[in-house]
């Protein structure tokens, strides 16, 4: 039961952060691929440039 709840919380958190990136996308230097960059935010955080733009999108 606890693991299922933890998994659900992780999924909700993942999509919440993706939504925040989607909403702040206009603050980044990217001009296209909004959906792809929003959905794949976690593995893309390994890239330094993406990480900087991601932070800019979330924090403003």
Automatic annotation (TrEMBL):
Protein name: Tsr1055 protein
Keyword terms, alphabetized: Membrane, Transmembrane, Transmembrane helix
Transmembrane helix among keywords: yes
Membrane-crossing segments per the record: 5-23
Domain of life: Bacteria
Organism of this sequence: Thermosynechococcus vestitus (strain NIES-2133 / IAM M-273 / BP-1)
